[in-house]
Amino acid sequence: MSYVFPPALPASVAVEGVDERLPVRRIFCVGRNYAAHAREMGRDPDREPPFFFTKPADAVVDSGETVAYPPETENFHYEAELVIAIGTGGKDIAEADALSHVWGYAIGNDLTRRDLQLKAREQGRPWDWGKAFDRSAVIGPVHPVSQVGHPDTGSIRLTVNGEVKQDADLAELIWSVPEIIAILSQSMTLQPGDLIMTGTPAGVGPLVPGDTCVVEIEGLGRIETPIGPRED
């Protein structure tokens, strides 16, 4: 097969402890999956069916890389998240079988142009300009299930310049990892390399150039993101 110009290299994320990288196919994100965060966003945290949005695969950024303050925003936010890496695809996956489809877990930071997201929400428009911009998905090394199991409890914590901004427990997820996988697979076929960002706790807030944002999840280590000068 030939192409009219060279295709882009596949997006990928690091794997803990090895040189090989995990290819990224798609990035799904769960909205408002912690009750306290739903409240701070002005929404009812009752257990309604979860909703999803996406980020492009090539939005991924490794831990330690500097992310420039993005254009067209004055309210650039962090969001600490547990990330699921799918290793075995499937459709209509039963909740009881869902964990067998997981290759591993990582720490994520769902970077958000909050002003653009809220404007889109108010106008009933998609969130893409607020969520799916360049370098908006910081994803740390993926830890294989064989090494870390399936974390469903444990601290998830975010600091900016050493100051704690988000501090919660994975047990506070409204929709659990098996539930998320089962529900998402009813709508589309999951494939190896799909990543799922599972939602963020309360305490989201702004980043400015010069900040260093650190996310830690118990059992998965930490990721770090310096924020660089504005990119206009």
Automatic annotation (TrEMBL):
This is Fumarylpyruvate hydrolase. InterPro entries: Fumarylacetoacetase-like_C, Fumarylacetoacetase_C_sf. Residues 27-227 form the Fumarylacetoacetase-like C-terminal domain. The keyword Oxidoreductase does not apply. The lineage of its organism: Bacteria, Pseudomonadati, Pseudomonadota, Alphaproteobacteria, Rhodobacterales. GO terms for molecular function: acetylpyruvate hydrolase activity; metal ion binding. Keywords: Hydrolase, Metal-binding, Pyruvate. Gene3D superfamilies: Fumarylacetoacetase-like, C-terminal domain (3.90.850.10). The keyword Metal-binding applies. Signal peptide: none annotated.
